[in-house]
Design a protein that fits this description.
The chain is mostly helical. Helix content is 51%, strand content 4%. Strand 4 (78-81) and strand 5 (84-87) form a beta hairpin. Keywords: Transferase.
């Protein structure tokens, strides 16, 4: 490691800030052999290797600073444990048979009610639909959602009230507005019914609204994913709910998060007629098969299992050719590579099974995740504001070099 110009070295003050201790404690760590101090010509005081400081910061012997300690985010919303997904202690798969509005309200408040309805203002919905009429006709659904959120926010003068009662009301209103604005159905429909109406084509079986409803619930939250962390940061500045949701939408607008199902959709599209040949072609080219494995789950994604189970049920009207192809791929890939299908695979299969728009997975993900983002915003509003001032670690050339 080259220390000649001060790169990769921290001053005592920087090391103390990173460790969340006083400068005197840093020297105590040196005396105990936990850190190695170094002298650099032209630099007053000791300097410390950044990797050594980072290593110590991850140990219990050093107390991390609360500022920037994003791993200490407290949440009562979602637990992922032993291959299961829980919302407020309730299994998300079990909740997925309930109305989306009821589950959303439960995630926000802890109250599981049967008769929850979200309402949208007809004038606001018409204004949102008019705004969507002025954009490119082939734009992505997530672009449309983003526009609806921005337009709708301008009609909510009390959106700056971040009290829990107000945020819960606004979150329900926002979901109903987005769902209604994306199509042209009656405002009397539920969120899931409105979304299905905006998605379906002439070939779509109306019974597909059942797995869609389940998918919305199962995608409502997934802990501190990248977009949710962005939402927590926005909420810590006391941004209103609409701005918080906009932050989340910005974070998922990428191939590694909200658009992760795109390559799965493209692959499955080529596999319907001959899944084995499509899989063989993929393997022959050295490309990995998309839609398998997960960074959190080790042997199963419960969201994917439930969505695929619903697609297999003839009562829900999914295209049997698509379901059969998906099952063949799952069986072959899982047995050969000791892996499992994830939610991206399931959402792509759902989209193809009902002949929906290619970007349907991204749209469902974005709309459903508004539920989780609102829940995390509610939690963050109860925390100390501006707590995510993460200290940067300067590794450039030291001023003394010049």
């Amino acid at each position: 490691m080259n220390h000649a110009d001060g790169r990769n070295l921290l001053t005592t003050a920087q090391a103390a800030s990173r460790l969340g201790v006083k400068p005197e404690t840093v020297y105590a760590y040196v005396s105990r052999g936990l850190l190695t101090s170094t002298r650099l010509p032209g630099v007053r005081g000791s300097v410390f290797d950044v990797d050594e400081v980072e290593s110590l910061a991850g140990r219990d012997s050093a107390r991390r600073t609360d500022i920037g300690a994003v791993e200490r985010i407290r949440t009562q919303t979602t637990l992922i444990e032993n291959g299961h997904l829980y919302y407020r202690g309730r299994d998300a798969v079990e909740l997925s048979s309930l109305p989306f509005e009821s589950v959303a309200h439960f995630v926000w408040t802890g109250e599981l009610l049967d008769d929850v309805r979200f309402s949208a203002d007809s004038t606001v919905v018409q204004r949102c639909r008019a705004a969507l009429g002025s954009i490119a006709p082939d734009c992505r659904s997530i672009d449309r959602i983003r526009i609806v959120v921005d337009v709708a926010s301008t009609y909510r003068p009390l959106r700056f009230d971040i009290g829990s009662t107000s945020v819960v009301q606004e979150a329900g209103h926002l979901l109903a507005t987005v769902a209604a604005a994306l199509g042209d159905a009656s405002l009397e429909l539920s969120v899931a019914e409105s979304i299905w109406d905006s998605l379906k084509t002439g070939a779509s079986d109306p019974r597909g609204s059942v797995p869609l409803q389940a998918a919305l619930v199962l995608m409502a939250d997934h802990g501190l994913a990248a977009s949710t962390l962005g939402v927590r940061v926005a909420a810590s500045t006391r941004a209103n709910l609409y701005s918080v949701v906009a932050a989340g939408l910005g974070c998922i607008d990428g191939p590694l998060h909200g658009s992760a199902a795109d390559p799965v959709y493209r692959f499955l599209s080529t596999a319907i007629d001959d899944p084995v040949d499509a899989l063989a072609t993929r393997l022959r080219s050295g490309e990995r098969v998309p839609g398998f494995g997960h960074v959190i789950y080790t042997d199963r994604d419960p969201r994917a299992e439930e969505i695929l189970r619903l697609l297999r049920d003839p009562a829900h009207g999914a295209d049997p050719a698509v379901v059969a192809a998906a099952d063949t791929i799952v069986e072959e890939v899982s047995s050969r590579f000791d892996t499992f299908p994830n939610s991206d695979f399931a959402l792509a299969a759902f989209t193809l099974a009902y002949g929906l728009r290619a970007d349907t997975p991204e749209m469902l993900f974005a709309l459903a995740r508004i539920v989780g983002w609102a829940a995390h915003a509610l939690e963050e509003y109860d925390e100390a504001p501006l707590r995510f001032r993460v200290p940067g670690i300067y590794t450039g050339t030291r001023p003394e070099t010049y």
